[in-house]
Design brief:
Radius of gyration: 24 Å
Order of helices and strands: HEEEEEEEEHEEEEEEEEEEEEE
Helix content: under 10%
Number of helices: 2
Strand content: over 45%
Oligomer: single chain
Mean pLDDT: 85
Low-confidence stretches: 1-49
Distance between the termini: 58 Å
Structural class: mainly beta
Largest sheet: 7 strands, mixed
Shape: elongated
Length: 283
């Protein structure tokens, strides 16, 4: 990927994300067979704003409209689709995911992600209208080192028409990049006599991109739920908060055979999680 998280130095303070489009020679060296292209979006002396140029971007969908959930290892491929329209035709488009408040200043960007290859665009039956697809291969172990980058990200799109005129829009669509979470549940003792108290423990943890490990998620609410044997419906019994290490612990009375589980609804930075149901035999 050409752009890495927290690489704020790539941003021009005068125009939109000047270094997001690399010089022709650099791009050709980076990708075998890379096509020549205009030097950068910075060639157009415009004031920072959401949109500039004659190319219009629409119908953008990031990851099928779902949150982007990242663990600590492996690669997550995220597809972005969009429409680009320009009566003068389009030679090339570029796509970037970025986080921050202002794409035109170094301090305004907290993270950026680029694609390995240029987006693929195909002209539709309507002249000047193109459907495009970009693929982001995100490696949490290297791309998401700063834990502060979880949350809302924006889609930056740029394009050059057939006359090498640049266009850009730094807020075409948004998506949430969230930390993956895990949740467990264990009900004891088992078996248990009817009417006796059981203790249900568990642990809520989430990905820590800085350490590459999962760590307990502190002071978070999780619902304790129960499903009677033979039923497919869970009922919420109570809400429990995790302690300083992410552990959940509470008690309840056992009346019939069934399954106990914890459910975490998720936050703006962390994905939801549901523990597998733990069966208790009541005698």
């Amino acid at each position: 990927m050409r752009i890495r998280v927290a690489a704020a130095a790539i941003v021009s303070g005068a125009v939109v994300l000047s270094a997001l489009a690399l010089p022709v020679a650099a791009q050709a060296a980076e990708r075998k067979g890379a096509a020549a292209k205009p030097t950068s979006f910075a060639a157009k002396a415009v004031q920072p704003r959401d949109s500039s140029g004659n190319t219009k971007f629409s119908h953008a969908v990031i990851n099928g409209g779902k949150d982007i959930v990242l663990g600590t290892t492996g690669t997550k491929s995220v597809t972005v689709t969009y429409t680009a329209t320009n009566a003068s035709g389009i030679a090339l488009t570029e796509a970037f995911l970025w986080q921050g408040t202002d794409s035109s200043t170094t301090d305004g960007i907290t993270g950026g992600l680029g694609t390995d290859d240029d987006p693929a665009c195909t002209e539709t039956a309507t002249q000047g209208t193109y459907t495009c697809k970009a693929v982001f291969n995100i490696h949490p172990a290297t791309d998401m080192k700063g834990n502060g980058v979880a949350g809302t990200w924006k889609l930056f799109l740029g394009a050059w028409d057939l006359y090498a005129n640049a266009s850009s829009n730094d807020d075409v669509a948004t998506a949430a990049i969230k930390k993956a979470s895990t949740l467990t549940a264990n009900a004891t003792p088992e078996p248990v006599k009817k009417g006796r108290t059981i203790t249900v423990t568990g642990k809520l943890a989430r990905a820590n991109w800085a350490t590459g490990k999962y760590a307990g998620y502190v002071s978070q609410p999780a619902k304790l739920q129960f499903r009677k044997k033979g039923s497919s419906t869970y009922t919420t019994l109570k809400t429990v908060k995790t302690n300083s290490t992410g552990v959940l612990k509470t008690t309840t009375k056992a009346t019939v055979d069934g399954y106990y589980r914890y459910v975490f609804a998720g936050t703006s930075t962390t994905a939801a999680a549901t523990a597998p149901g733990d069966f208790v035999d009541v005698r």
